UniProtKB/TrEMBL annotation:
This is Uncharacterized protein. It comes from Streptomyces canarius. The chain crosses the membrane at residues 31-54. Keywords: Membrane, Transmembrane, Transmembrane helix. Residues 1-23 are annotated as: Disordered. Residues 8-23 have a biased composition (Low complexity).
């Protein structure tokens, strides 16, 4: 039976076992890229929603939403 000469059948250097050496760094780079993409998405969403947030804060200040007893008039 003839063996396939693909990636999985390559001979590894002496003293090395398990997965290829670059797997960890590649996975780490992918994870960092995903974090950067998620951060950029969150920042973009915050920038888009900022005018609405400012409007809400102004409304809250106008109606004076404080907890506890109201001040006597």
């Amino acid at each position: 039976m003839r063996q396939h000469k693909g990636f999985a059948m390559r001979m590894r250097p002496a003293g090395r076992a398990g997965a290829p050496a670059r797997t960890g760094t590649t996975a780490q780079r992918v994870l960092i890229a995903q974090g950067v993409a998620l951060g950029a998405l969150a920042l973009g969403l915050l920038v888009l929603e900022l005018p609405g947030i400012v409007r809400e804060v102004r409304i809250w200040r106008m109606i004076d939403l404080r907890s506890g007893a109201k001040r006597p008039r």
